[in-house]
Amino acid sequence: MGCCKEAPALSAEVDRQLDEVVGKHKDQPGALLEILHEVQRIFGYLSDDVLIAVSKKLGIRTSEAYGVATFYSLLSTKPKGKNIIRVCVSGPCHVMGSDTILQSIEDELQIGVGETTSDGLFTLETTSCLGVCSDAPAMMINDKVYGNLTKEKVRMILRSYAEVKEASVS
Amino acid sequence: MSAVQLKPEPEVALATVTIDGQKVTVEEGTTILEAAKRVGITIPTLCYHPDLPPQGICRVCVVEIEGSFLLQAACTYPVRDGMVVKTNSPLVREARRMAVELMLARGDHNCPTCSRNQKCELQKLAESLGIRENRFEVVRVPQPKDTSSPSIVRDPEKCILCRRCVAVCQEVQTAGVLFPTGRGVHTEIAPPLGRDLAEVACVNCGQCILACPVGAIYEKDDTDKVWEALADPTKHVIVQTAPAVRVSLGEELGMPTGSITTGKLVSALRRMGFDKVFDTDFTADLTIIEEGHELLHRLKTGGTLPMVTSCSPGWIKFIEHNFPELLDHLSTCKSPQQMFGALAKTYYAKKTGIDPKDIFSVSIMPCTAKKFECTREEMRASEYQDVDVVLTTRELGRMIREMGLDFPSLPDSEYDDPFGISTGAGVIFGATGGVMEAALRTVYEVVTGKELPSLDFHPVRGLEGIKEAEVDLDGTKVKVAVAHGLSNARALMERVKKGDSGYHFIEVMCCPGGCIGGGGQPIPTTLETRRKRVESIYQADKELPLRKSHDNPAIKKLYEDFLKEPLGEMSHELLHTHYVRRPLV
Amino acid sequence: MTSSAQIEKRIVLRNYGKIDPNSIDDYVKAGGYSALKRAVTQMQPAEIIKTVKDSGLRGRGGAGFPTGLKWEFAAKAQGSPKYIICNADEGEPGTYKDRLILEGDPHSVIEGMAIAARAIGASKGFFYIRGEYVKPIEMVKKAIEQARAAGFLGKRIAGSDFEFDIEVRSGAGAYVCGEETALMESIEGKRGESRVKPPYPTDEGLWGKPTVINNVETLANIAPIIENGAEWFRAIGTPKCTGTKVFTLSGDVVNKGAFEVPMGTTLRTLVFELGGGIPNGKEFLMAQVGGSAGGCLPASLLDVRLDLESLREVDGSLGSGALLIVDDSRSVLDVVRSCMKFFEHESCGKCTLCREGTARLARLVDKIAEGQANTEDLKLLERLSRIMERTCLCGLGQAAPKPILTTLKYFKDEYLIRVSDQATPKGA
């Protein structure tokens, strides 16, 4: 008893991808954050195995990598949906009605903040200011920013993402 | 106004500051906290620990500085010449109280049932700051305790996020387990990946317990198991006491730091109902015989060198996680606790005719890692768990208090035979450098056949992180090193890994100062208390008639009757062990 | 009524909308990089520092520390290498001036950084851009490559022996990283938690080396100051607060957007002339100046001048230059609640007062807004705010109570009518 869990071996392909990312930053001091960004872009989130492997390759402790990964809102240690919706709830968007926008997304997708739709297509989150306050209320889906939102507009935008999925399926 | 003038060193820039109307001249860069101490003002602190880098994060030690709108943390803020500081203004008092009230208003701060009741820094602060009511509503987010480890319990609901344990775990011990996770009010000091302590590279050293100002992290309490065994008439309950406990139990029970209480300890255990009271020092002597011969064997036969000591279970788990490629360097000798455990349920059982299944073997240790060690699969030489329960110094202290024994006034008594005779060499196992010194006393005489001119090997004594010495064994120069605290051990192992350390023999003790600074020792354990306990250990050594392990008559008899020869077949079976590679998470 | 063109004074937005931001040639044609050339070939570092000091330029990130003085500290500090960091972690709600500058004229910031590097003796710079700014990150990376190819970054800049290069690092969603010490922790690959000061970054900053951290807008001012001289710059703005400031108008205002005006322009000018007033026939209720950590100013203070000193006099702060305009159909406390929720979410959690304090402020304001609070709660809210602004470890916690303190000052009734049983809550 008392022995810790052995990390399951990562597939050779995953290991190669991690080596590539870490190798790219090997002469960059303090590149942990950049590496976690890139690794998350590849795998969608920072799984335990990935964090263990990255720590080992960087020669740091997993506790440090995990501490960093859980500090920043844009990093996630839990799996997320294909599309991440981030609704701005900062002052200007709040004043311009972000609550209504958030509500309409919740109604449309039948999920609450922090949840993922059952088909894995969307994860709903809130975010601090996106810096597009003249177009409040605003939200971001993945890397794309949408402003001047209304209930109707939100519905259309969400459906466009859902359709992309359907199109690719058929 | 009184002026306190300190003798200035010629080249150092000095700053004269006024603290609460008292002028004091100190070296520039001294913190306000230190400067205030010089004029007799103790500014309350919480995240500050005398042996750790100051952090300035709990905001309890904030003070007012004339001309500054912001209050500053006295533990980190350096004085400037001409600075005027107020440590007791209405604003300062309100800020301090606010900080403490805020801490008390989150989580579980129910003092009577807390492991640190009456020994809690937060509790003391609340008392001394006169907090009689909390203006904030208590918020509790129930979080389960982590009881996965056989050594350490973590209670996140009691944690006030002072991060002293983080500094110890990451910097002092480099175990690298405890670290802040999450952000803001969701911050938690925890092992990585949401795992329990038993699932990561925690070495069970318990230094985090000593660092914790509150009851957020504490030893797994095994006292009930012992009470139960003592009350069971079918059990033959024996106990062994580690070298370091005799110089610290008194402290736990209200006596001055460093009090040597060997005789009282034996009396107390007997009064508690133990059938036999033995001394781990006896098997410390045995360890020296076995380990000394192992070293000589390696030197002669070209075995793996440097050989590294193996009596510190925190150190063993550390090397298993962090340097699995160096496991061959470890001596195969079990620790004195486990040598005792193995002999108790074999040799002693046979000798007394008691069925080993009826023997309940308890050990009193300065150590939390020993609780883990006794549960290791390898530690069942008798086919039973060789040592059933390990109690720390603190747990024994609690049992003695619960029983109502007036410890300081107990008479002295002697250990029982046959495991009661020991030497000063066994005693010094409790301090950093002690195993090395004990080994050298024996190895020198075995190799040279000559009496040592002086028994005291001063170069391996003291609290310097890494110590080195060279011993001339009749022309053969043996280079030795001693490390205590795992960051020092890590540094030494990095050199061993490179292959050019040049050492033959290395002693590693997991905890700073050695076992006297173990994670099961009385709180507070600081550099200062460690130093006093070390002094007492060497004092106890000096006072003993026998000071060399190979002079121990009981050891000689043990070999004659039972073990036959060092490193022999019986030794191999009972006294030696092997190690496992563990993953690093 | 004056036209916008007469009120506006464009220095940092000089090229915005006029040049192709993706073209270094456009920037050079507009006079770009000539200041850098002059700084490396004709000026000594001390002379650059003196010019910036004389210009009176103060940091545009919020604290308003004199830029030239900061450079001088770093230039004189022992330690090598030295670093210059551009703080583009623009997370202050309601602020997007840095994004506009980076998207509209990235070379102006790169040029400013290179001049700063020359002044303090740095050979390496970091551009720390918040992770949400996907487009600016790409544009800045591209601009750096162009500058390198054109010989404005790298070895032998403008034919001199001055060497300097810039690396882009992106944030990952943490407002606190806009605080300079947290930002450095983040660049070092750590949790973005603020450090205690001293030591100050100019002595012991990034990796313990002397470091200057300047805001995007601050750096965009550098090349024009070198080109046109300190006197030219001093003539703009107020005597203590020289130059211009970019304000970003959002909320209940007709013309939302960014306006660069001389320091000291009044709030009224911004809201009613440049901003075109309040839409939908509503009345002005308040303006939150400087972002979520900014003060909430009532209509009676519309004539306050927007500069560091004037705003401080009314317990406000210039902050990042965000102007959130709120009309009279809304509740003051609703805005304050939103701010407090924000700070609770963004506190790094390192120091007790901010970690616990921001959460308590949020709860107390909720309680008051919901009509569940008594006068003791209100008193506690005020005391906690007062203690936090003086006791928290970094600027985040120190500034977090500002919306509460200013609304307690200017809109006290909004609180009083909701506590105890003095009145039924308005609009509840």
Give a quick rundown of the structure.
The complex is a heterotrimer of chains A (170), B (585) and C (428). By secondary structure, chain A is α+β, with helices and mostly antiparallel strands.
**Total domain modules of chain A:** 2
Instruction: Let me know the average pLDDT of chain B.
Output: 96
What does the overall shape of chain B look like? globular
Instruction: Identify the CATH architecture of the largest domain in chain A.
Output: 3-Layer(aba) Sandwich
Indicate the multimeric state: heterotrimer
Strand order of the largest sheet of chain A: 2-1-3-4
Assign the CATH topology of the largest domain in chain A.
Glutaredoxin
CATH topology of the largest domain in chain B, which one?
Answer: Rossmann fold
The H-and-E topology of chain A, N to C, reads as HHHHEHHEEEH
Which radius of gyration of chain B do the C-alpha atoms yield? 25 Å
Poorly predicted residue ranges of chain A:
none
CATH architecture of the largest domain in chain B: 3-Layer(aba) Sandwich
Describe this structure in words.
The complex is a heterotrimer of chains A (170), B (585) and C (428). Chain A is α+β, with helices and mostly antiparallel strands. Chain A has two domains: 12-69; 83-169, Glutaredoxin (3-Layer(aba) Sandwich), CATH 3.40.30.10. Chain A contains seven helices and four strands, in the order H-H-H-H-E-H-H-E-E-E-H. Chain A has a four-stranded mixed β-sheet with strand order 2-1-3-4, with helices on one face. In chain A, a hairpin with a 2-residue loop joins strand 3 and strand 4. Chain A is elongated and about 50 Å long. Chain B folds into three domains: 3-88, Ubiquitin-like (UB roll), CATH 3.10.20; 133-219, Alpha-Beta Plaits; 224-575, Rossmann fold. Chain B has helices at 32-38, 90-104, 121-128, 164-172, 207-211, 223-230, 249-252, 262-272, 280-301, 313-322, 336-352, 369-373, 393-403, 424-427, 434-448, 486-498, 527-543, 553-563, 569-575; strands at residues 3-4, 14-19, 22-27, 62-65, 72-73, 84-86, 152-154, 179-181, 188-190, 217-219, 236-241, 276-279, 307-308, 359-365, 389-392, 466-473, 476-484, 505-509. A six-stranded mixed β-sheet of chain B has the order 1-3-2-6-4-5, with helices on both faces. In chain B, strands 12-11-14-15 form a four-stranded parallel β-sheet, with helices on both faces. In chain B, strand 17 (476-484), helix 16 and strand 18 (505-509) form a beta-alpha-beta unit. Chain B is globular. Chain C has 428 residues and is an alpha/beta fold. Chain C folds into three domains: 4-234, Rossmann fold; 244-327, Ubiquitin-like (UB roll) (Roll), CATH 3.10.20.600; 332-416, de novo design (two linked rop proteins) (Up-down Bundle), CATH 1.20.1440.230. Helices cover 43% and strands 12% of the residues of chain C. Chain C contains 20 helices and nine strands. In chain C, the strands form two sheets. In chain C, strands 6-5-9-7-8 form a five-stranded mixed β-sheet. A four-stranded parallel β-sheet of chain C has the order 3-2-1-4, sandwiched between helices. In chain C, a hairpin with a 5-residue loop joins strand 7 (284-289) and strand 8 (295-298). The longest helix of chain C is centred in the last third of the chain and has 18 residues, at 352-369. Chain C is globular. Chains in contact: A-B, A-C, B-C. Chains B and C meet through helix 2 of B and helix 15, helix 16 and helix 17 of C.
